[in-house]
Amino acid sequence: MKPLHQHTPLLVSHSLSALCGREIYLKYEALQPSGSFKDRGVGALCMHYAKQGVNGFISSSGGNAGMAVAFASKALNIPAKVIIPITTPTLMKEKLMAESVEVIIEGENWDAADLRARTLASELGYAYIPPFDHPVIWQGYISLIEELKQDNVKPDAIIVSVGGGGLFSGLIQGLHSIGWQDVAIITAETVGAASLFEAVKQNKRVKLDKIDTVAVTLGAKQICQQAFEWTQKHPVFPQTVTDKEAVNACLRFADDHRLLVEPACGASLALLYDKRTILEKFKTIVVIVCGGSGVNLNLLSGWKKQFGL
Predict the structure, then answer these.
(1) What is the pLDDT confidence band of residue 112, given thresholds at 50, 70 and 90?
(2) Which residues of 82-113 are buried (b: 16+ CB within 10 A; e: fewer)?
(3) From CA 38, how far away is CA 8, in angstroms rounded?
(4) Disulfide-capable partner of 291 in 25, 36, 116, 248 (CB 3.0 to 4.6 Å)?
(5) SS3 call for 46
(6) Is 127 exposed, middle or buried (0-12, 13-18, 19+ CB in 10 A)?
(7) What is the dihedral angle through the alpha carbons of 255, 260, 265, 269, rounded to the nearest 10 degrees?
(8) Which of 102, 56, 55, 64 is closest to 83 using CA atoms?
(9) What global pTM score does this model have?
């Protein structure tokens, strides 16, 4: 069975390289079929269950994971239901409803929607597809590191945005699987959703009281256990940015590279546009342009106005 993800382009950014005085590569995960990196991890889990002959998929994400499940549902010809909380942005509701999945709006937040998804999956005998916390999902992201090796680029560091820690976990697992344990990970989170930053700071998994950020797809109150364990075993440099810095990076990236990305991705790009001092430790850096479906010109224009950019 052919993987659901694509081997995405890895391109040098001349503008960011000149700005930062470093060799900056962009890994264009925004060009995956569903619009984000989730096609690798979530797609891998959907394929895993498809091979077992599952009757359907159930996801609890109104963001990129839900879109990846919708794409997998269509590609594998297996029905899917996506449970989303009432707080899901209108754009994502519309995008999911346009796909061949049943969208159920329930719960004040993701936790409530997730509880309903787990219950319904058990009742219907469907496969529950979590957004980030599953070994097969982490395994799916190893392909991203394998592609760097195939493209003959071994960076000194990789910059990645972190929500629940699935992609983060898979990247480090991939680095260790090919003997690149010395490649550092620089994580990016917005201040209002910095669960990994706080976990490293306090040396324990921390559950945030609330999520307060326009980067809604980073909105996990707590990183998964696997992600926390990797912070103890691998060189990790946690960074935070403001919402304003993330949105500004989205705007500048659109101008420089002609591609729209959501603020969750902008968090990583902000480290470059702001020329953070952490970059000075490394000569060659790969940035995961994780993409995201939760953006369009109107939203970007609204955020620009909101933050006075």
Answers:
(1) confident
(2) bbbbebbbeebbebbeebebebbbebeebebb
(3) 13
(4) 36
(5) helix
(6) buried
(7) -10
(8) 102
(9) 0.95
Distance CA 19, CA 11 (A): 16
Q: Show Cβ contacts of residue 29 under 8 Å, excluding neighbours closer than 6 positions.
A: 8, 36, 37, 40, 144, 288, 289, 290, 291
Provide long-range contacts, Cβ within 8 A and 24+ apart, for 265-269. 265/30, 265/161, 265/289, 265/290, 265/291, 265/292, 266/215, 267/161, 267/188, 267/189, 267/190, 267/215, 267/218, 267/241, 268/159, 268/160, 268/161, 268/188
Residue-level pLDDT at 219: 76
- Which positions ≥6 away from 196 have C-beta within 8 Å? 162, 165, 168, 187, 189, 223, 227, 228, 231, 238
Count of positions (residues) in the chain: 309
Place of tokens 């891998």: 44
The mean per-residue pLDDT over the stretch 233-260 comes to 98
Does position 111 have pLDDT exceeding 80, yes or no? no
Alpha helices in the chain (DSSP H): 14-20, 38-51, 64-76, 90-97, 110-124, 135-150, 166-177, 195-202, 225-231, 243-257, 263-273, 297-306
Centre a 10 Å sphere on the Cβ of residue 64 and count the other Cβ atoms it contains. Answer: 28
Number of Cβ atoms within 10 Å of the Cβ of 256: 15
Q: With beta carbons less than 8 A apart as the criterion, state whether 264 and 235 touch.
A: no
Q: Which domains does the chain have, with CATH numbers?
A: 10-37+134-306 (3.40.50.1100), 38-129 (3.40.50.1100)
